[in-house]
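S.,

Sequence below, as promised.
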Amino acid sequence: MSDALGLIAADRLALSRRRAARVARIERLWPALLPSLFVFGLYLAASLFGWPQALPDWLHALLLGAVGLVMVWLCRRALRRLPVPPAPLAARLLDARIEQASGLRHQPLATLADRPVVSGPGAEALWRAHQGRVAAALSQTRAGWPRLGLARHDPWRLSLLLAIALLAGAVVAGSRAPGRIVSGLWPGYQNREGPPPHVQAWITSPEYSGVAPVFLATDASGGVGQTTIRVPQGAVLTATVTGASRPPSLGGDGRDRRLGPQSWTMTRRLESSTVLRLSAGGYDLPRWHIEVVPRSAPQVGWTEPPTPAMTSGKEDDGSDRSTRDQPLLRLPWHVSHPYGVASLEARITPEGARMPIVVPIPLPGRPRDAKGVATPDLAADPLAGSAASVVLRAADGSGEVGESPVARVRLPAHAFRNPLARAIQAQRRRLALHPERARAIAADLLTLGEAPGALQTQTDLYLELVTAAALVGGTMAPDHRSEAAAMLAEAQGRLWQLALSVEDALGNDRAARAASMELRAAQDSVREQMRRMRELGPQGQNDREQGELRRRVETLNQAIRRRMQALADQARRQGNAIPMDPAMGGGGLDLQKMMQQMQRDAAEGRTDQAMRELKQMQSMLDRMRAATPRDAAAAAQQAQAAAEAREQMAGLKDIIGRQTALLDASQKRDPHPDPTGNPTAAWRDAPGEMPGDAPGGMPGDVLSDTAGDTSAGPPSAPGSSPAAPDVARRDEAQAQHTLQRATDELAQEFKAFQGKLPQKLTDAGEAMQRARAALRQGDDAAASAAQTEALKDLGDGGQQMRQTMSENSSRAESGSGGIIPGFGPDGQGGGGDQGDGGDGSDGGQGSADGQDRDALGRPLNQGSGRHGDDDATSPVLPGADAGARSRALEEELRRRDSDRQRPPAELDYLDRLLRPFAR
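The prediction came back faster than expected:
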């Protein structure tokens, strides 16, 4: 039993010694681990307060790594300094710990290893008995707990401060403490704390696109937006996050900026399609699918091949009369771009030219899809008349440029009638093609000065020729090489003006030629001021520029009058006559009205429209400037025909008005009126807007001249006369007979002047005859139907009259050219290309005969509002003049905005309303 007890005690002792060794190891390592544990405790306290998590993820990770390195370094440093006792001493120390922990006295463990001092049977028995008692006592040995002695190793009591910090952090974190500890030890871990952050996001498109900002859908609960957002390349996404406990995360490269304690803004430039995901505060915020539309060049092309834009016709000598009109090149264009076209130009390269001619084409703002017709005037170019290649170049706001296919065209040229002017133009062409032959060209120019003609008889023209020849020859001088290009350009300009002056001298006396030159100078002056105002933009609308424009327009007006007077004097001396109208024509497109409209458009900032009107007016002035006495005689005939046409149209209006009154009386007596109503209601609602309404009212009562007394007209209303219905019908039948005779007379007069009988007027007379018979029989229903038919035929007859007058006027202009403005077809200003004229952004060709008109031939006008209310030969339907209403609205807004005494809120509102008009 003693041996078994010894084995048990030995096993127990061995176990206790192993445990004691572990405890001793812990006690030895504890002082070495204390610095590292203190650093780690500080980091945990900071995590409970959320300080590391507030850092960017990369800085958070860097801090965590630094803490770990410090802890490792402190441990290694302390472990290296630990003493290592010898093995016997270490064993004795372990036994002493066991004895102390087990409460054993007198070092019983040492007894196990001792030997008796004396030997003998008695001594051996006594020793074994002693060892047995010791073994029995060792059955309850313990290793004990480690004695860390924190106070002994922390004399500064830093552990107490650490405990306070951890306790405070735990109190602040509360239930979020575990999540904060995890997020502090795991950089990038999104710990959801508090409510979801508030997100606002939008995409700002680049300026070239003209697209408004796009506000993005946000779902703070982590929803995913599946809609693909299309944006132009270069757009910028901006996201603002408010209420996030730590910096948000957004994919892509960009800039993040802190706005406040819990507010951030992030920007990302979008150059390619991507998916951006936003997260903050432990929440997965929206995810946006963005498709980036790459930059692309505008699409530009021709709607039809370019052609010269001149009126056709032949001179008496068989030459092309179109050269007497303004030679224009017609360029029908079409551009498109998803985000708008910023600029458009035509590059025209004549054969043999060293540099292309660049013609800017104005666009209405930045259109995404637009088409029009540019009509540049290239007559002054020395290579006019040459075959040329034309390319359209369109650019968007980002600088991307698209080109059209190359088109071939022969440039229109001013064909001079004077041989000397043609010779000067030929030298200009030689100089443009071969500037190296400048000396020979200068000699040829001086030779032209010796030829009989205007250069011999008029000193000023000869001096101009000599000056131009000197400039041409001087370009080859060695000391003028640097100025050669400028000298050549000046010489070309002088030679062009000289050719025009020589041409003006043909068939004109000195006074007429001087008036023509003055008119040309005034034209150039107005055109230059208009170009300057357009280039200045909003600054070109100040009082100074407007006053200068008014002064130049007034000078042009005076030059026009002097030219007309000189032409009339010259025609009078040659036995011809030309009618002089102070307003220079009675039509809506006469020069006076065009100048007034041009001034209004320029004053209100519509410089492109003003330039188009100026160009149209210049075409008319060029014909006036080139007019001869023969043209004056033709103009007189056109004026007479126009006056007759206005008188006849006025007579037709009078007939329509009286026939309408008869129809009213018949319909009011008819117990079963036509459910379609009176077809003339619109005519009565718009008095003064009948076909043929002449300016200032009718020239006289046509009925009085053709049908005798018409005072016995129909009653103004039923029951207004005490006469019985039969008496009223008899009076109306008599009035109907008078109108029938007046209609027949008008048709015959029109045939006598225009050579063609309007068939619809004949039909109207027959309908009136049936209405008269029905009235005599007391059949108001039949009379009403016949009168309605008569009114319809009168309207159609008015259209036929206008068509015939237009055809006759066109034939007259083919012979005379419509030289004098104001005496064109139907008495409306002659000249002025209606379709292809303009500055270059005209979108159409004008209205063909019968197109864009109502049943009476009145133009719908499409809201242009160009002719004013007194254009009686071309009345406008009520409500169609949208352009005039828009201008009136703008003028009223500007009038109110000019009163700076109004309340600031009202002035700010007016300024916002005026912004669209300033574009």
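The chain has a mean pLDDT of 74.

Coffee later?
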